[in-house]
# Entry
Amino acid sequence: MKKLHFTPGPSQLYFTVEEHLKAALKENIPSISHRGKTFQSIFAECTENLRILLDIPEGYHVLFTSSATEVWERIAQNLIGKESFHFVNGAFSGKFQKIVSNYKKNALIKDAEPGEVVDIEKVLIPETSELISVTYNETSTGASHTEGDLAALRMGFPNQLISLDVVSIAPSVAIDFSQVDTFYLSVQKCFGLPAGLGVWVINDRCIDKAEQLLGDGESIGSYHCIPELVAKAKINQTPATPNVLDMYLLGKVAHDMVVKGTKQIRQETNYKAAVLNHMVEQSPYLSHFVKNEQNRSKTTLVADCSVSSSKILTALNAKGLVVGAGYGERKEQQIRIANFPTHSKEQIEMLSDQILSLNI
Ligand SMILES: *Cc1c(COP(=O)(O)O)cnc(C)c1O
# Structure
C-alpha cells in the first residue's frame, strides 16, 4: 500500500511531481551539461517562477545551494564578520547559531520558552551585531513568528542585515520579503520535492558585506561564496554541478503553484490548519504544544500526546497514514503533522477523522 506522508519534511511529493519527473527522464534532463543552453533555460525558468510565486522584490538575487543547512554555513562565512544575533525558538534556529559559533564568531542568542517564540519587540540587540537571524516557522516546535514581527525588526534595525529562514513556511503564508536582506528554503518541505536543493535569496547589501569581508582579508569560502554564486547566476549557471533534476522540478512546481494561485494556496492552508487545530482540541490523546494561537504554525502542527507518540504513529501507519514523531528529546511525547500545499483539504479531513477514531 502506498502511504500518504504528513511528515514535516521530507513529505508527500507535490501532486504534479510524478508527471514532471516522467517528462524530465524523457527529455534526458539528468544527463545534460550544466554549462549548456538547456540548463541555462532551466535555471532561468526556475528563478523566474520563484520570483513570481514568492513575490521576490526587485534587485534580489536567487542562488542555489545543496540545502538550507549549507546556507547557514555560507551566511556564517559571507555575512558575519565578528558578531550575529539569533532568535532561537527550537532546534533549527539553534543549529544555525551553533554553526556561526563554530566559525569562532560571537553568535549571541535570545532563547524562547519551549513552544513559544521570542517577543522580538522586547529584545535588545546590540548595534555591533552585523546580522540578525529569525526562523519564521520553527519546524521542531511548531512555533511561528508573524508578519508584524518582521516589520518591527526592520524598523528597529535598519542598518543590520536581517536573515530569515522560511524553510517550512514559504509559499504557504504571505511574507513581505522586502523587510529582510536574505532568506532561504529547502525544497523538501512546502514545495513537496525530493531533498537535495536549497534556495538562497540575497539583496545587494549582502553582496557588499561579502566583498567588505573579503577586502578585510577574511575567508568567505570558495566555490559557493557570494561573489562566485552571483557571477554565475548572472549567466544562469552555478559554480559547481548542481542538482539539475531538482531545479527542473522546482521550476515546474513553482509554475504549477503560480497557476493555482498563492491566494488559493494560502486560503486552503488556513482552512486545513483550522481542521487540524479543531481535531487536536477534540482528541482525548492530544493537546496543543503551542498555546498562543497567534504563534501556532499554519504548516507544522505540533501536539503533546497523553500516550506514547509511537503508539499513535503505529496505529495511523496501519491505515497508510504517516505523521511525524516529536523532534529530538520530545520524540515520544509529541506528534508533528505537516500541512503543506500538496496536502489536499480532503486528505487533511480524512487524517483528522482517522485520528479522532483512534482507540489506543
Ligand atoms: C528542515 C529545516 C532546515 C534544514 O533543511 P535541510 O534541507 O536539512 O538543510 C532548516 N530550517 C528549518 C526551519 C527546517 O525545517
About this structure: Residues 9, 67-69, 92, 135, 139, 165, 167-168, 186, 189, 195 surround pyridoxal-5'-phosphate (CB under 6 Å). The chain has a mean pLDDT of 97.
